[in-house]
Amino acid sequence: MNIVSQPLSLGGTGPAVMVKDTIDVAGQATRAGSRALADAAPAARHAEVVQRLLDAGWQLRGKTHLHELAFGSTGINPWAGTPLNPGWPDRVPGGSSSGSAAAVAAGLVGVALGTDTGGSIRVPAACCGVFGLKPTFGRVSRDGVLPRHSSLDCVGPLAASMPDLVAAMQVIAPDFGALPALPPSLRIGVLAVPAQDSTWRAVNEALQASGETLVPVPLRRFAEAYHAGLSVINAESWAACAALVETGLVAPDVAARLRHASRTDEIALKAAAAVRHWFTADVDQALADCDVLALPTLPEPPPRLDQAADTGASVGMTALVRPFNLTGHPAISLPLTNAQGLPVGLQLVALRGADERLCAIAQRLTDRLHLTAITNGVPHADLEPATL
Questions:
Q1: In this structure, is residue 387 part of a structural domain?
Q2: Do residues 173 and 24 make contact, with C-beta atoms less than 8 angstroms apart?
Q3: Cβ(258)–Cβ(242) under 8 Å?
Q4: Residues with Cβ < 8 Å from 364, sequence gap 6 or more?
Q5: What is the CATH number for 80?
Q6: Residue of 5, 20, 100, 161 marked catalytic
């Protein structure tokens, strides 16, 4: 299934977990899915999140494949290999945390860690039909994670269930407490964002079935926030990866996108900073009147593998997730399919720092809507037993 880049056996007898290969494991090279890092030196120590998992007795089973250098939304990787999407084998697994999502969907582990700079946990979670949380920016340590410096990137869990996801957060974020009690009725702000009609039908039907109060919420700067987030990730990714591109060992599609990213100038970054300020205020204002914001995770189902060779053209997969990297708000994707049985995901967004409340609301909606992750007994295809 081409999911695991480095099988491992570390830790105790607790829950099994895998981590994306941008997260350091002592004694293992962190290759980020790139031939340019094939000969990277082994990490001298564990990333903080790995150390916390091991200290809590979890079993580290391996490092997972990803979109090269975590710079892509499809998960397609010509050098390291593209993980199979267990529920929809003809569709992309999503990126960049493709292997982490696929590992959970294949039933290899109940939890896998990914990273999310522009949707890279939530997009593959939606594509593979599992739960995925981008925590509040800074809530989970990035010590020992590539890229070393980012104003957008977050480490977070992909999981087979909400209890699994919460258990992981309680380990990797030491201040993550018990889920709070919720009022009998919630106000859910439904964001007006562009998505395929079948996607919106699935999301609207789910929200109406939740029994909560639904409030339409327009966010005027949503598209601007998407483009501002793209400017920031482009500038920061080029700064982190320029030397690797110059080796000539980065795959042509990723190298071309990074070279394009290098043209992001100070004017674009200043404009992005202004949008970040105003859009963050817009989201905070919307959340002052609502318990959570809701929207699709994906604008439309993930593309077929045979239609996704141009990974640059698939950047629109992040259209509905990237704005919340810019603002730093916590956001979660719950498994949801459209009427044709294709994955689109339901995304919920909460106030910064309110990760526990977000998870409590996600748990309520999961229970009321009977949402379940794709795991090793998927009905969408006859799969071989899960293997590394």
A1: no
A2: no
A3: yes
A4: 182, 186, 210
A5: 3.90.1300.10
A6: 20
For residue 120, indicate whether it is catalytic: yes
- CA separation for the pair 181, 184 (Å, rounded): 9
Average pLDDT for 54-77? 97
pLDDT value of residue 316:
87
CA distance 386 to 269: 44
Q: Is 96 a catalytic residue?
A: yes
Q: Find the domain containing 171 and state its range.
A: 4-369
CA-CA-CA-CA torsion for 141, 147, 148, 153, nearest 10 degrees? -40
Query: 96, 97, 98, 100: which is the annotated catalytic residue?
Result: 96
Instruction: Single out the catalytic residue among 5, 100, 120, 333.
Output: 120
Tell me if 317 is assigned to some domain.
yes
CA–CA distance, 232 with 261 (Å, rounded to integer): 9
pLDDT tens per residue across span 326-344: 999 999 999 999 999 999 9
Helices (H) and strands (E) in the chain, counts: 10, 11
